Amino acid sequence: MNRKNLLDQLAKDHTLPFDGFVELLAHPDEGLQAHAASLAVETTQQYYGNKVFSRGLIEFTNICQNNCYYCGIRAGNENVQRYRLTDEQILQCAATGYQLGFRTFVLQGGEDPYYTDDKICRLVQQLKHNHPDCAITLSIGEKSRESYERFRQAGAERYLLRHETATPAHYHRLHPPSLSAENRYACLHTLKELGFQTGAGFMVGSPGQTPEDLARDLLFLHKLQPEMVGIGPFIPAAGTPFAQEPAGTLNETLFLLSLIRLLLPDVLLPATTALGTIDPRGREKGILAGANVVMPNLSPKSVRKKYQLYDNKICTGEEAAECIVCLTKRIESVGRELAVDRGDNVRYVKMKEDHYCV
Ligand code: SF4
User: Fold this and answer.
1) 9-32 burial by CB neighbour count: b if 16+ within 10 A, else e?
2) Would the CB of 161 count as within 6 Å of ligand 1?
3) I want to staple 11 with a disulfide (CB 3.0 to 4.6 A). Which of 21, 39, 47, 343 is the partner?
4) Where are the domains of the chain?
């Protein structure tokens, strides 16, 4: 089957055999990418219309006990100025965000032992109390089933945990021996079982990544059926073992966004800050490839530069209000509109409605 037909089959069946994905990923070209983007945009509009959803990102701690080889805030990077936001600062970020129209807040941080389950639950409860119409997303790494259960009971409805790579050998190329691929995948399955709207994802162009690895990533996503998928290009970070490695490319990331949209048609798919970092119009191009979420930063300006997962990260010098004005213009420039909406996954909404009917 030729590659254009493979894309058409993916758009129709929402999956392909392993070899089909490898064929697409090993030989992308401009025509194929344009066809994928066109199918992906059509699919996005079928499920979400013209809307692009925003998530207010609060990077509340850049302290992490882990040492992922690609990460700028890894524990071993001594050049990082470490910070933790106070509860009051976090609540203030959310209050400012709410006034700006955000209805989802993402609490993101390193795996920082200071934030016990009690502290996280208290924060989630306070945020839900202050903004009952908002969704709270956590992105704080690998935890026990008990911890995830407690977060869910406290009111968190979504959890982001990139699977990083579905190839265990590649996982070990990217992480120290203290971290295991098996535990990562198990955490994601637990999150799904507990009813979180779950986000998986990976970097595009990470060191050692092959088309076969990416094909396994797509099949992993198909099996997991996450409600959200975050992908962005690998960008090297100073002070890490991968500081000298080449970055992933814009085109490959855009192509993968389109493939993921066709694989999981109702998925919430961010045009990430990393995409905007490797290309000045990367986020707009992401939307034109099938993305439908943006995640502007609500963290205080004073700490933004300290949360450098990779080099030259954009939007570290603006206030939240400036970010939203800028993003609104960018989204409108590609014919879309920024929604004031929680932006739940449509499959999740339907499942909840069905549950209430029985
Ligand atoms: S990627 Fe996440 S877990 Fe790994 S070092 Fe960075 S913040 Fe910590």
Assistant:
1) bbbeeebbeeebbbbbbeebeeeb
2) no
3) 39
4) 40-357
Check pocket membership of 74 for ligand 1, CB cut-off 6 A: yes
Radius of gyration of the chain (CA): 19
Q: Whose CA is nearest to atom 3 of ligand 1?
A: 66
Taking only the tens place, the pLDDT of each residue in 23-43 is 999 988 999 999 999 999 999
- CA 275 – ligand 1 centroid, Å: 19
DSSP string covering 115-142: S-HHHHHHHHHHHHHH-TTSEEEEE---
The alpha carbon torsion through 199, 12, 209, 109 (nearest 10 deg) reads: -10
292-347 pLDDT tens trace:
999 999 998 888 888 988 888 888 877 777 888 899 999 999 999 999 889 999 98
Write phi, then psi, for 5 (nearest 5 degrees). Answer: -65, -35
Q: Which helix (H) or strand (E) holds 350?
A: helix 346-357
Question: Is the distance from the beta carbon of residue 341 to the nearest atom of ligand 1 less than 6 Å?
Answer: no
Q: In CATH, which of 3.30.565.10, 3.40.190.10, 3.20.20.70, 3.40.640.10 is domain 40-357?
A: 3.20.20.70
Instruction: Give nearest CA residue, ligand 1 atom 7.
Output: 110
The one-letter amino acid at 18: F
